[in-house]
Design a protein that fits this description.
alpha+beta; 5-stranded antiparallel beta sheet; 3 helices; about 35% helix
Length: about 160
């Protein structure tokens, strides 16, 4: 019985060693990033405006347009900007929150989506309220206009 247990352990160790040896490689391999360089060193340069996960012009324009609102979260690689609730001093009974989604690395109108949320104060309770349909479109247009201006200014610098 004791011999059988020892043989079983020896067999398990040999099988495990064989499995690990099969995972080996024939030599060292290099890890390349998407631009052809080794870990981002060397290789070809990313196109202007796309060094982050989304279009840089849209990202910068979005942050410029909503800079008056407090920022809750910003993910330049995922392309999401979320503001915290903002209350205009002239209308203290309503507040707004904005989420900007940048969906592409190209400077295009369909690479941008803006969601605006509104709440009104009803006796100390904030209640969701609809926003004007044009509000989101106006913010998208302001971001796109700013992104175009940033791109044109960058082309002039080259």
């Amino acid at each position: 019985m004791r011999f059988a247990r020892g043989a079983f352990r020896l067999g398990a160790v040999v099988m495990l060693a064989g499995a690990l040896a099969a995972c080996g490689s024939s030599g060292p391999k290099t890890v390349k990033d998407g631009n052809g360089g080794f870990l981002g060193i060397g290789g070809k340069k990313a196109p202007k405006g796309t060094e982050i996960g989304v279009n840089g012009y849209l990202w910068r324009a979005a942050t410029d347009v909503i800079k008056f609102m407090p920022l809750a979260s910003a993910d330049p690689y995922g392309g999401v900007i979320i503001t915290d609730w903002y209350t205009d001093p002239q209308t203290p009974n309503e507040r707004f929150k904005v989420t900007v989604y940048i969906l592409d690395t190209r400077l295009r109108a369909d690479a941008l989506n803006v969601s605006v949320f509104k709440q009104v104060n009803d006796n100390g309770n904030w209640i969701d309220a609809p926003t004007a349909a044009q509000t989101e479109a106006d913010m998208e247009n302001a971001i796109l206009d700013r992104a175009r201006k940033l791109r044109l200014a960058n082309l002039g610098d080259e």
